[in-house]
Structure formats: structure tokens, C-alpha cells
From TrEMBL:
Similarity comment text for this entry: Belongs to the metallo-beta-lactamase superfamily.
Organism name: Brevundimonas staleyi
Protein name (Swiss-Prot/TrEMBL): MBL fold metallo-hydrolase
Keyword Metal-binding: yes
Pfam families from the UniProt entry: Lactamase_B
UniProtKB keywords: Hydrolase, Metal-binding, Zinc
Residue span, Metallo-beta-lactamase domain: 95-283
PANTHER family linked to this entry: QUORUM-QUENCHING LACTONASE YTNP-RELATED, QUORUM-QUENCHING LACTONASE YTNP-RELATED-RELATED
């Protein structure tokens, strides 16, 4: 992971639902079976439901970092070591798992993994196939932000990996992606498919964009609601299920605006714990599902199911 991979808080609590995408969606139809069929579980695919929606965590790979300057984004390596001591592993482990959602006559993929970069295994294509979906069946790709472990899988062999999908990201994030010289070869490939939106936009009948400020200029989470069920995909507002949750005050060098990112983390943890909100951590231990709980000295993440070892 390079230094470009860098999440105020009031928008989490007050800006959750605002009208309208900036541009209408391209009409792309997927076979009905692909939109509604349940998925079989495997080592790299974890199916679950959100109301009437069929969802699946799709493993792309793992990022493993030493807790030392130059690798860890947290400058307080001694503080991080103290937090990690209880895990029995001194290394920083960040899983990478895009989220698949099927329903509303759409096949939606939230983020696309690293495409094999950053030490990951490029498992997403196989995980997607195991979930019963072909790349051409994906109708919408929702990008949380423009870092390589989230949009790296958009392009393969200099062509669109998901040829029929609209690629959606916030207006501010698309501007940042276009200005990033390290993404110069990716931008012209994806540009014809990009559709931008403003914070709070209703992306699909079940998915609303949520501004989670601080990590990148237009960093976005996605709240998925079906019936009485809801799930918040919070992107890189929190990286580690241990460090980010138990010490949200730690400065993270990957954040573009540290003060805003810290405020976002505290607000997100507070809302999650107060509402017992089901959440999805793209970098939390696979499959990334769980809730936040208050404890005497702060917060802790409670996984919904036992994490799968890398």
C-alpha cells in the first residue's frame, strides 16, 4: 500500500438521505436468475440477506503490514502494538472483500478490490463466479473512493472488467481520481461508464450514498435498506477492526483530512453502537459483518460470524 491510500462527522448523523443521482442510470439488464438466486457459501464467498436482497461478501485478498514506520499508517506504533497485543499477532491484517447485492432487478458490486496489486491475491473474479455472477451481468458498481484496493479491479488487460456496469462515485471523488497521476491509465478506460452523484443520493431503490468525510475528498459509504433490515458499508472510515475501533483517535496517514476522519470514526462508532446497526467492514476480518458495542473505555467490534483465517 502506498501513501496515496489515505474518511464532519455530523453528516453521518444528519446527511443520510438526500434526493437524486446527478445523472440517470444507464439501462442495463441482468438475467433475472442472476438478480435473485441465493449464493452457496465457500471459503471466499459468504452469502447473507438484507431483507429481500441477496448479498455476499466476496474475498479479493489480504493486505498484511508490519507495525513499523513506512508500512503502518499509524504513526503511534507503540500504541498500535499495545492494541494488537490482545490479538496475539503483532502484524496489521486488512482483509479486502467487495460486497455483492442482488435485487431490485440489479446486480450491484460495491468496490472492486485491488486487481492483484498491493499484495492481494486477485480473488474477486473467482469469488464472483462462485457466487453465480458473470462480470457482464453486473449492472452497477458503487465506488467508495479512489484508492487502488477499491477501484483496482475495474480494469483488466486495459479493458473494462465489468463491461455493462455503470460506475458510480461521488462528484468530489471522481474529480480526485481524475487529478491523480497514478490513475492516469485507468481514467480514460472507465470514464465513459462513470456516473457521479452528490452526498445523500438515492443510488438504487435500496441503496443510499452516505458521506463519510476525512479519508478522501469524496469518500462515500452506502446504506442498504430492505424492509426492516439495513446494513451500512462504511468503506475506509475504519480500516482495522481492532485499531480503528478501539483507538479511533489514532492519526492515520492514509486519511486526507485527519481531524475530519477522526470525527467521522467517533460518530460512526457512536451511531453504530446506539442503534445496534449492522455494518460491513471491507477491510475487517472476512466476511466483515458485525456491530459495534460500547465498552467502559470506548468501543469494540462484534463480528456476526467467526472470521475466516487468511
Amino acid at each position: 500500500m502506498t501513501t496515496q491510500f489515505k474518511l464532519a462527522a455530523a453528516l453521518i448523523l444528519s446527511g443520510m438521505i438526500v434526493a437524486g443521482c446527478q445523472r440517470p442510470a444507464e439501462k442495463t439488464e441482468a438475467p433475472a436468475a442472476a438478480a435473485t438466486s441465493p449464493t452457496a457459501a465457500s471459503a471466499d464467498v459468504h452469502p447473507f440477506t438484507i431483507g429481500a436482497l441477496h448479498a455476499a461478501a466476496l474475498k479479493d485478498g489480504d493486505i498484511v503490514l508490519e507495525n513499523v514506520a513506512g508500512q503502518s499508517p499509524w504513526a503511534d506504533t507503540a500504541g498500535v502494538a499495545e492494541v494488537l497485543r490482545k490479538t496475539g499477532d503483532p502484524k496489521i491484517h486488512l482483509s479486502v472483500q467487495p460486497l455483492l447485492i442482488r435485487g431490485d432487478n440489479k446486480v450491484v458490486l460495491i468496490d472492486t478490490g485491488a486487481g492483484g496489486a498491493m499484495g492481494t491475491a486477485n480473488k474477486l473474479p473467482a469469488s464472483l463466479a462462485a457466487a453465480g455472477v458473470q462480470p457482464a451481468q453486473v449492472t452497477d458498481i458503487l465506488i467508495s473512493h479512489g484508492h487502488g484496493d477499491h477501484l483496482g479491479g475495474l480494469v483488466q488487460n486495459e479493458a473494462l472488467a465489468f463491461p455493462n456496469a455503470a460506475i458510480r462515485m461521488s462528484t468530489a471523488e471522481w474529480a480526485a481520481v481524475q487529478a491523480n497521476g497514478e490513475l492516469a491509465t485507468l481514467v480514460p478506460v472507465i470514464a465513459p461508464k462513470v456516473q457521479t452523484f452528490e452526498p445523500g443520493a438515492q443510488i438504487t431503490p435500496s441503496i443510499t450514498a452516505v458521506a463519510l468525510q476525512g479519508h478522501t475528498p469524496g469518500h462515500t459509504g452506502y446504506e442498504i435498506v430492505s424492509g426492516q433490515d439495513r446494513l451500512l458499508y462504511f468503506g475506509d472510515a475504519l480500516h482495522s477492526s481492532v485499531i480503528s475501533v478501539e483507538r479511533p483517535d489514532f492519526v492515520n496517514a492514509w486519511d486526507n483530512d485527519s481531524d475530519a476522519a477522526i470525527a467521522t470514526r467517533f460518530a460512526l462508532l457512536g451511531r453504530g453502537a446506539t442503534q445496534s446497526l449492522r455494518t460491513y467492514g471491507v477491510h475487517f476480518p472476512f466476511p466483515g459483518l458485525g456491530t459495534f458495542r460500547r465498552q467502559a473505555d470506548g468501543f469494540v467490534w462484534v463480528p456476526e460470524v467467526a472470521a475466516t483465517a487468511p
